[in-house]
Amino acid sequence: MSLEARLQAASNEYQELQAELSKTVEVRQRLDAQLSENELVKKEFASLTPNNTVYKMVGPVLVKQEQQEAKSNVDTRLDFIRSEITRIEANLKDIGEKSEKKKGEVRVRDYLTDAKILKPYIDCRDANDAAVAATVSSRSCVVASECIQGLCGDLPMAEHIALHQFMPEAV
Questions:
Q1: Exposed/middle/buried for 123, CB within 10 Å: 0-12, 13-18, 19+?
Q2: pLDDT at 137 over 50
Q3: Residue 10: which H helix or E strand, with range?
Q4: Cα separation of 105 and 90, whole Å?
Q5: Mutual angle of helices 139-148 and 157-166, in 10-degree steps
Q6: SS3 sequence, 105-146?
Q7: 29 in helix, strand or coil?
Q8: How far apart, in whole angstroms, are the C-alpha atoms of residue 15 and residue 8?
Q9: What is the DSSP secondary-structure string of 32-81?
Q10: Class of domain 1-102
Q11: Domains of the chain: which residue ranges?
Q12: Which residue in 18, 90, 96, 124 has the most C-beta neighbors within 10 A?
């Protein structure tokens, strides 16, 4: 896979991770709302006397329900919501870590592109032709070629690290 393709793939993966992160945050927010609602219901149940009647809405109809059954249902829902929140939090952490790693790769790509290092390198590398490489007048192409050969010369450290990150064959 060419360098340009790897960098584009890293950018696409980063965008996918950001979309997944956004969806997961929405799920987490819905769970928080459900948790608050059910905790409020549980708090209200605590103030009930045995003589109070509890109704459950089933579609458009209110149906009488036993207090203990209603309390048990709310407790079960709270346990489920809390376990889902724990699962989603772990998922958010995992996606966040993956996203940060890809973000670094994308930043390196942007740096190489902005510094005009990447395009001449790709031109020389993909051409695989000494005559074509010799006609490219960009200093960054020569420096990148030297770096690939292990002769890093006066290549600034940030550029050197960035090149080696995406070109393991250069190490």
A1: middle
A2: no
A3: helix 3-46
A4: 23
A5: 60
A6: HHHHHHHHHHCCCHHHHHHHHHHCCHHHHHHCCCHHHHHHHH
A7: helix
A8: 11
A9: HHHHHHHHHHHHHHHT--TT--EEEEETTEEEEE-HHHHHHHHHHHHHHH
A10: mainly alpha
A11: 1-102, 115-171
A12: 124
More confidently predicted of 62 and 119: 62
CB count, 10 Å around CB of 23? 11
> CA 171 to CA 165: how far, in whole Å?
9
Asked if residue 149 has pLDDT above 60, the reply is: no
Confirm if 5 and 168 have CB atoms less than 8 A apart.
no
Which residues are within 8 A (CB) of 14 and not within 5 positions of it... i.e. 6 or more apart? 99, 102, 103, 105, 106
Handedness of CA 31, 84, 89, 18 (dihedral sign): negative
The owner of tokens 């207090």 is: 67
Place of tokens 């010369």: 153
The predicted structure's pLDDT at residue 135 = 40
- Residue 144 token pair: 């990148």
